[in-house]
Amino acid sequence: MSDIGAPSHLFRGSAADVAGAFVRNGLTCIQLTPNFVGLRCHQPGQITADRCRLIAQPFHAAGLHITCLTGPAPLLDPDLHRRHPGIVRLHALIRHCRDFGTDRIVTETGSLGHRSPWAPYPPNRSGPAWAELHLVLAEALRVAADHGVTLLLKPESSHILATAEDAVRLRNDMDHPNLAFVMDPVNFLVECSPGELNARLELIFEQVGPWAPVVYLKDLKFTAGGVALPRAGRGVLDYALISRLLRRYQPSAPVILEHLRLEEVAAARAYVEKFLNTECRG
Question: 0.70 exceeded by the pTM?
Answer without folding.
Answer: yes
